[in-house]
Amino acid sequence: MEDPLEMERSLQLRKHARRVMGAINTVVENLNDSEKVSSVLALVGKAHALKHKVEPIYFKKLTGVMLEVIAEEYPNDFTPEAHGAWTKMKTLIYTHVTAAYKEVGWAQYPSATL
């Protein structure tokens, strides 16, 4: 999908966005439980590698866009400390998801940055 209006109207995209935010919420709620965080993000990574065939670089792009949107929507609340925390979250997500790609032997895009 490239048309923003089509994206806005897409029920499938909304459903996926809810699942994405639900997974991120689960990670945030369990930051003190590294096994739960690893488990959730491993499931996400494996599903996207094996079932959906999504290049892992898109996780880096998505989390970067999320930071931009949060900063735009909540400029007064997105302090340097909040930015730092979300940047750590971005790294955490990407690190765990790409580890899952490596675990399943991701080879569809050998030049993809893992």
UniProtKB/TrEMBL annotation:
Known EC number: 1.15.1.1
Entry coiled-coil feature ranges: none
InterPro entries linked to this entry: Globin (IPR000971), Globin-like_sf (IPR009050), Globin/Proto (IPR012292), Globin_lamprey/hagfish (IPR013314)
UniProt KW keywords: Heme, Iron, Metal-binding, Oxygen transport, Transport
Annotated catalysed reactions: 2 superoxide + 2 H(+) = H2O2 + O2; Fe(II)-heme b-[protein] + nitric oxide + O2 = Fe(III)-heme b-[protein] + nitrate; Fe(III)-heme b-[protein] + nitric oxide + H2O = Fe(II)-heme b-[protein] + nitrite + 2 H(+); H2O2 + AH2 = A + 2 H2O
Domain Globin per the UniProt entry, residue ranges: 1-102
UniProt name for this protein: superoxide dismutase
Gene that produces this protein: CYGB_0
